[in-house]
Amino acid sequence: MASVGSASSPLPRRRYLSLRGASWELLRPPRWHQSPLRQADPGPPHHTSFMDFVAGAIGGVCGVAVGYPLDTVKVRIQTEPKYTGIWHCIRDTYHRERVWGFYRGLSLPVCTVSLVSSVSFGTYRHCLAHICRLRYGSPDAKPAKADITLSGCASGLVRVFLTSPTEVAKVRLQTQTQTQQRRLSASGPSAVPPVCPAPPACPEPKYRGPLHCLATVAREEGLRGLYKGSSALLLRDGHSFATYFLSYAVLCECLSPAGHSHPDVLGVLVAGGCAGVLAWAVATPMDVIKSRLQADGQGQRRYRGLLHCVVTSVREEGPRVLFKGLLINCGRAFPVNMVVFVAYEAVLRLTRGLLT
């Protein structure tokens, strides 16, 4: 997601609606004086934070709902060598766990996405405003590409402190079925039947839900367990968010019609989707290492740290292991970020229209 600033419309509403007939134009004022990713005039100060939080929360929740099933498949492909491809993982997950298997651990990301989105975009806009003030004397000055990149990187680094525990719980819940099967198979060839004949024969899951998972990890592994893989998460989110915000700004500028400073709804969809794909393309190698470090700890530990995980994974499975899930990451990123951007923009403008 990215926050898109707008200036208040100088035209009366009735005249404006007669000039602009497209549905997207009803959601935004006719003049966009600011760059898509710059600190713009946010409207009434006492409503700004609330509206940004609501719009960011709804946009984030919509994105999670669209992309979570593929995220589960991605995590399992990255952590389970037995899967030969995306369709193999999808078929196996559906065969063993039905539709619910694709939504394991969903409740925690949905509950925390509002806070994470608020902090992410708040940090980005705050950093960008300070950089513009220091470099150009005004927070409303048009930022350079380096300013956008630096602010996006800062946003990615700050969000790690909030997302790391939820990522640990999400990955553990998404992979605990495979972990149980590995434990049983290690005890003997006859310990695991192809399909559980009756519910009592199935192993009891270690984690009963996101909160129980967090409590169990904290009790068994301490606070460090909740931040396992945070080094890889820092490396993943820092440059990926810098790529995300920068690519969105550049694409919005390229897709804006002549005489306009911002693209129409189709341009926003394309810019948001492409920005998400580019961000995940550069994030996938560290995302693989992050998932493996966070899944490690269920049973015998395999990795001693970030570097050991990278070396061991590459040695055992080759350099291609760092790009496991790249296709599904990019395929998931396009529709997710299209939904996020459109929902964010629509909610922000509708709420501003109601409050002004």
Automatic annotation (TrEMBL):
Pfam families: Mito_carr (PF00153)
Gene3D superfamilies: Mitochondrial carrier domain
Solcar repeat start-end pairs: 47-130, 143-254, 263-350
Subcellular location: Mitochondrion inner membrane; Mitochondrion outer membrane
GO CC entries: mitochondrial inner membrane; mitochondrial outer membrane
Gene Ontology MF: a single term: acetyl-CoA transmembrane transporter activity
Principal location class: mitochondrion
Membrane topology field: Multi-pass membrane protein
Keyword terms: Membrane, Mitochondrion, Mitochondrion inner membrane, Mitochondrion outer membrane, Repeat, Transmembrane, Transmembrane helix, Transport
Catalyzed reaction equations: acetyl-CoA(in) = acetyl-CoA(out); NAD(+)(in) = NAD(+)(out)
Membrane spanning stretches: none
Domain of life: Eukaryota
InterPro entries per the UniProt record, alphabetical: MCP, MCP_dom_sf, MCP_transmembrane, Mitochondrial_Carrier
Stated role: Mitochondrial NAD(+) transporter that acts as a 'metabolic gate' in hepatic lipogenesis. Provides NAD(+) substrate to mitochondrial SIRT3 deacetylase and enables its NAD(+)-dependent activities in mitochondrial energy metabolism. This triggers downstream activation of PRKAA1/AMPK-alpha signaling cascade that negatively regulates sterol regulatory element-binding protein (SREBP) transcriptional activities and ATP-consuming lipogenesis to restore cellular energy balance. May transport other mitochondrial metabolites having an aromatic nucleotide and phosphate groups, such as acetyl-CoA.
Family: Belongs to the mitochondrial carrier (TC 2.A.29) family.
Protein name (Swiss-Prot/TrEMBL): Solute carrier family 25 member 47
UniProt source species: Aotus nancymaae (Ma's night monkey)
